[in-house]
Amino acid sequence: MDFNSLLHGDLKSLIQTIGYIGVFTMILLESGLLIGFFFPGDSLLFTAGFLASQGFFDITILAIGTFIAAVLGDSGGYFIGHKFGRRLFNRENSVLFHKDHLKKAEVFYEKHGGKTIILARFMPVIRTFAPVVAGIGSMHYSTFIIYNLIGAFLWAVCISLAGYFLGTLIPAEIADKFIILITLGIIFLSISPGLYHALKTKESRNKVLALLKLKK
Fold this sequence. Notes:
Blueprint: H1 3-7, H2 11-32, H3 41-53, H4 59-84, H5 99-112, H6 116-119, H7 126-136, H8 141-169, H9 175-199, H10 202-215
Helix pairs in contact: 2-3, 2-4, 2-7, 3-4, 3-8, 3-9, 4-7, 4-8, 5-7
């Protein structure tokens, strides 16, 4: 099993293969270490919680482990931003780093302040770069860690528990059919804020259309 399985939608099989360590590592990397922005955190957590309801994971271990990973990931992102500061904006783009993501997180942070660390948990890509921006800015770590703990609980723990409790309501013999539909729904909800932002004004819609034409 590799990431090709994930890209083809076989998230359940991927999670079963990588187990606890794989899930915790993916949450850690996505939470703020710059290189995990492409991981499907929301659907990963929900599906793992769902699998826990089917006996594959222990929900207590899963919830505690993902919470710790999320907190450590965001803290790592904060210290990356604190150490390297504005120099990150001068870094060249690569497969695992895009300055545009950092700039979007900065704009979001300027608008929402400290609450960004909580809100960004539910926004793919932004959640990876938000703690980095907080470290670059003037937020003290003592303030950051409070937002970090709250955000990690609401995201990692609550989404895992949501998957778990929904799974307990669905008969095991039809669980597979539901998990595919639910995962697709979560992925859609995850990308919907970005789609809304990209299409909410005529100017932004024109930019998207122009980009599509260039790709053709």
